[in-house]
Automatic annotation (TrEMBL):
One of its GO terms (cellular component) is plasma membrane. Residues 41-292 form the G-protein coupled receptors family 1 profile domain. It is a multi-pass membrane protein. It is found in: Membrane. Keywords: Membrane, Olfaction, Sensory transduction, Transducer, Transmembrane, Transmembrane helix. PROSITE patterns: G_PROTEIN_RECEP_F1_2. It comes from Gopherus evgoodei. One of its GO terms (molecular function) is olfactory receptor activity. This is Olfactory receptor 52K1-like. It holds the Pfam family 7tm_4.
Length: 312
């Protein structure tokens, strides 16, 4: 049984995965494995890009930002999730809950924006190869990074501020592994229409606009590729987009599936919702370094060289 704190708004309790509490210890094994792979993969990616001068290019600068975002996303939630699974440590203060929610949503939005920036990078590399180096200078890349950060902050800051104004006189038990916006909103005992409208607008704005511009970039890329003279040139040009396309699928497919189940799967068991929410949060940080490590020859060769040096 989880405690109910009455009208005290200072403490919440996370359930973990409702209905599967008895299996938390076993469920922690794949969760912990994914977390370790994400940490090792992204740290390795950052180290390789930093130490290899041939990787100091716009595409890899964006990849560095993506790896840092994935690291922060993983460490924002996984320590608390594992503490629930291992030690039944369910308590989280209201302020810590808002901080976790802020980091979670901010960096999820940054992740989406980085994929859009990387689509722009691929568009310029294929459609404007002669101007690529002059368009994507270090200064422009830094400005894009600041824009990614600013957009996330502007979109996410209103969420915690709105939640702080709500009274929480019902149960303080959050049926989730971490503090998520709508999970906290549903605990309030006041009119939450503004909060719900805000959440829907932000979600549609991020997924809708980012996916639309990414799609437009690839339509133009495909046109440019098809206009190339030989089949070999076409395959080579498309090959440079392979890693990015895989990253897009890894990030957006779980998001769309989870959102669809949440909106329309009213008869789906609660633990399925929670597992899907964790899947879209944890899967991309694990897969992104694997995708770029396997499909990018420069990174793959550098990692293999490092492994051989360590084993010799």
């Amino acid at each position: 049984l989880l405690p109910d704190t009455g009208i005290d708004p200072s403490v919440f309790f996370l359930t973990g995965i409702p209905g599967l509490e008895a299996l938390h210890l076993w469920i922690s094994i794949p969760f912990c494995s994914v977390f370790i792979v994400a940490l090792l993969g992204n740290c390795t990616l950052l180290y390789v890009i930093k130490t290899e001068p041939s990787l100091h290019k716009p595409m890899f600068y964006f990849l560095t930002m993506l790896a840092m975002i994935d690291l922060i996303l993983s460490t924002t939630t996984m320590p608390k999730i594992l503490s629930i699974f291992w030690f039944n440590s369910r308590e989280i203060s209201f302020n810590a809950c808002l901080v976790q929610m802020f980091f979670l949503h901010s960096f999820s939005i940054m992740q989406s924006a980085l994929l859009l920036a990387m689509a722009f990078d691929r568009y310029e590399a294929i459609c404007n190869p002669l101007r690529y180096a002059t368009i994507l200078t270090n200064s422009v890349i830094a400005k894009i990074g600041l824009a990614v950060l600013a957009r996330a902050l502007l979109l996410v800051i209103p969420g915690p501020l709105l939640l702080r104004k709500l009274p929480y006189c019902r149960s303080h038990v959050i049926s989730h592994c971490y503090c998520e916006h709508m999970a906290v909103v549903n605990l309030a005992c006041a009119d939450t229409r503004v909060n719900k409208i805000y959440g829907i607008i932000v979600a549609l704005f991020i997924v809708g606009l980012d996916l639309m511009f990414i799609s437009l970039s690839y339509v133009k890329i495909l046109r440019a590729v098809l206009s190339l003279a030989s089949k070999e040139e076409q395959l080579k040009a498309l090959g440079t987009c392979g890693s990015h396309l895989c990253a897009i699928l890894v990030v957006y497919t779980p998001v769309i599936l989870s959102s669809t189940i949440y909106r329309f799967g009213h008869h789906v068991a609660p633990h399925v919702h929670i597992l899907m929410a964790n899947f879209y949060l944890l899967f991309p940080p694990m897969m992104n370094p694997i995708i770029y490590g396997v499909k990018t020859k420069l990174i793959r060769d550098r990692v293999l060289l490092f492994v051989r040096w360590k084993s010799s």
